[in-house]
Amino acid sequence: MSPHSHTLPLVAQDEWLRPAAPEIEARYDRFTHRADEIRHWSGSLADYANAHLYFGIHYDPERHGWWFREWLPGAREIFLFGDFNDWERTQHPAERVPDSNGVWELFLPDEATGGRLKHGSLVKMYVHGGDGSWMDRIPAYIRRVVQDEQSKDYCGQVWEPQRPFAWDEDRYDLTARAAEEGGLLIYEAHVGMAQEREGVGTYEEFTELILPRIKKLGYNAIQLMAIAEHPYYGSFGYHVSNFFAPSSRFGTPEDLKQLVKRAHELGLGVIMDLVHSHYVKNLNEGINRLDGTDGLYSLPGETGEHPQWDSMLFDYGKYEVQHFLLSNVKYWLDEFHFDGFRFDGVTSMLYHHHGVNAPDWGLEAYFGGGANRDAILYLTLANELIHELQPGAVTIAEDVSGMPGVTFPVRDGGMGFDYRLGMAIPDFWIEYLKDVPDEEWDLHRMWSVLCNRLPGVRTVAYCESHDQALVGDKTIAFRLMDKEMYFAMNRESQNLIIDRGIALHKMIRLVTSTLGGEAYLTFMGNEFGHPEWIDFPREGNGWSYAHARRQWSLAEADYLRYIDLARFEGAMVALLRKYRILSAGYGYQLKVDEANKTLIYEQAGLLFVFNWHPTASIPDYELPAPQAGKWRVVLSSDEAVFGGQGRVRSGSESAEYFTDSRMDGDGVTRHYMRIYNVSRTALVFAREDDNGFQTSLSSKSFSL
After folding, report:
1. Burial classification of residue 583, based on how many CB atoms lie within 10 Å of its CB (0-12 exposed, 13-18 middle, 19 or more buried)
2. Which residues of 684-704 are buried (b: 16+ CB within 10 A; e: fewer)?
């Protein structure tokens, strides 16, 4: 019997969940039992999540030497070797710690190595595995991994600088910042491909060149991909090999710390794209079969492999794996001052089927035998830990299944994520842009998709992320304009495809950001319609970096039309911030005019009019107004500065629109006004208050 004296709030607030109450309570009981157990033995979750301070390689200043520890229960023998002992594999054996469930330990005093084992030393383990194999391996808790340019072999590197990084007074509360600025605005980025030059970008370059761009656009958070070390660059960082090592492709750990510190100085939070859903199969680089057995960090056999990702799955029910992953969470927060995590592949974690050939989503799928209780427990512990360590941190779940409770507080029966990704939104836009002509777009369905979230389920809305920018897919800009972008984006070209593409690109971003959620995300370069897909160097493209970069100069040239899209992004973000639109809740639908393809709604006190029709511009168009009074356009996507035709102006150049009031047939007095309803244009109206009209957001001086 459940120990609860009352129904958990997660169930109490949703009658549909009543039949699942026993399972929801059982999940909560599992969490409280495990958390209490951890606190009994370790004092707190935060004290428990310190495996990285014990395992790995650490200097002991009191004993003047180095400790090396690893959890390798199936191994028969373990040795530490490297450049400090001229790569002699069996000179320094570790010993199994009694009653430790497989912990191996070695202490190397400075005199034993002549001081050669030090910060920067290259190291490996020589493992006599449980299967009888002998292999050179990289320690699981290593903090830096480097690749030899000649052999391409990866090797661990001791990373313990004598001088700690100077964080000074670095403190940042992303939740508070987002609340102050009316919502969370996330700029997703990849350090390596953030540069314009062909090659791999660095943390230093990103700090110097890219952070100011993001700041100027008005975003308040960066979501960094591919931070944890991964052997294959083209995996986009999703096949992690070394969970405690920031990718050395981009620079040193200190360089990454400087990036985070500088971002905080600019008022930008930094969210890490955290991959705890799987890990790379590689034996030379990763943790797979690290002790020579099948089933160390994974379940044995096929159960431990992802059926589609060619990678290994974690055994979340094993305490040592929980310890490893929870410590990894704390490591990135403490050591690098990250402000939260976007948990990748949450759907794969939540279910034993990993979302492959998934059943129809419903109570049985969410709370039946297909759900992975161990993974749910781990994610709940992780969220509890993160918010215990850093109450202002943000966690985001990449879950397409809609599992109830993902964004509900842990104490109320949920998993504790702050946000979920609104993954149905980009799918909707892709479907419409691929398969449905403009004049057949169903505005009721558009509204439904953009507003399809339960109250309290905070959602990150986005039109497109890195997923849509990869080879094999297309960005919204490329779907709209395709090859025309290569030769018709100059201002002298008269091209209807480009005109349509620019108009719809602006409208899609604006309607998504103002209706789709409590946060908004874009992927770098998409704000100006970057023309190139992402194709990492590979044999099929001659190992070229030509498509693994961002061509910022396109959005800086006045003779090209990319700058128009970039200017609109800045104005749109300013609108979101100024009127606190993301924190305003659901929009209120005022009118859906399918004949004229016009969608009208009120949000945050503003009036939004979207005319999606390809050709129909309607003078003297009557529409409902939320309040009586005088209104003026504060943002027009048709402004010439945004690549429009200038048919409707905004700000001080806007016409004044006065409402008329009349009693309708139902006896209710309503307010109406008449506007020029321009085709393929979004108009945002603000009502005059005691302080007059708000200033326009379409300044012609706005540029990157």
Report:
1. middle
2. bbbbeeeeebbebbbbeebeb
3-class DSSP state of 245: strand
pLDDT attached to residue 96: 98
Q: In degrees to the nearest 10, what's the CA dihedral of 42, 48, 53, 56?
A: 110
Ranges of residues in the chain whose predicted pLDDT is under 70: 1-5, 690-704
Angstrom distance (rounded) from CA 430 to CA 423: 11
Residues 292, 298, 304, 308: is their CA dihedral positive or negative? negative
Yes or no: say if 518 and 576 are a contact pair by the CB < 8 Å rule.
Answer: no
The Cα-based distances of 510 to 467, 521, 641 in angstroms read: 20, 12, 16
* 203/192 Cα distance (integer angstroms): 8
- Enumerate the β-bridge partners of residue 606: 603
398 is catalytic: yes
Q: Tell me which of 344, 464, 532, 564 is the catalytic residue.
A: 344
pTM: 0.96
**According to the model, what pLDDT value does residue 631 have?**
96
Sequence-distant (6+) residues with CB within 8 A of 208 are: none
60: Cβ–Cβ under 8 A, 6 or more apart, which residues?
A: 66, 67, 107
Task: Give the torsion sign (CA, 357, 363, 364, 370).
Answer: positive
Q: What pLDDT score was predicted for residue 664? A: 80
310 catalytically annotated? no
Q: Is 302 helix (H, G, I), strand (E, B) or coil?
A: helix
Contacts of 303 (CB under 8 A, 6+ apart): 313
Which tens digits make up the pLDDT trace of 637-689? 999 999 999 998 887 778 899 999 998 878 788 999 999 999 999 999 999 87
Cα–Cα distance for residue pair 648/678, rounded to 1 Å: 8
Cα distances from 651 to residues 87, 108, 298, 688, in angstroms, run 70, 71, 59, 12
Q: In this predicted structure, what is the pLDDT of residue 695?
A: 46
Strand spans (E) along 175-227: 184-190, 221-225
Kind and range of the H or E element at 350? helix 346-350
In sequence order, the 6+-apart residues with CB closer than 8 A to the CB of 568 are: 506, 509, 637, 642, 643
Q: What is the total residue count of the chain? A: 704
User: For the chain, what percentages of helix, strand and coil (3-state, to nearest 5) are there?
Assistant: 35, 25, 45
As a whole number of angstroms, the distance between CA 607 and CA 686 comes to 7
In angstroms, the CA 300 to CA 485 distance is: 50
Query: Quick one: which of 459, 433, 464 has its CA closest to 446?
Result: 433
Instruction: Tell me the two tokens of residue 513.
Output: 């950001």
Q: Catalytic residue among 181, 285, 374, 398, which?
A: 398
Question: Is there a contact between 427 and 449 (Cβ–Cβ < 8 Å)?
Answer: no
Tokens 């109570």: give the residue: 363
Q: What radius of gyration, in Å, describes the C-alpha atoms of the chain? A: 28
Q: What is the pLDDT of residues 455-500, one digit of tens each?
A: 999 999 999 999 888 877 789 999 999 999 999 999 999 899 999 9
What is the per-residue pLDDT for 653?
78
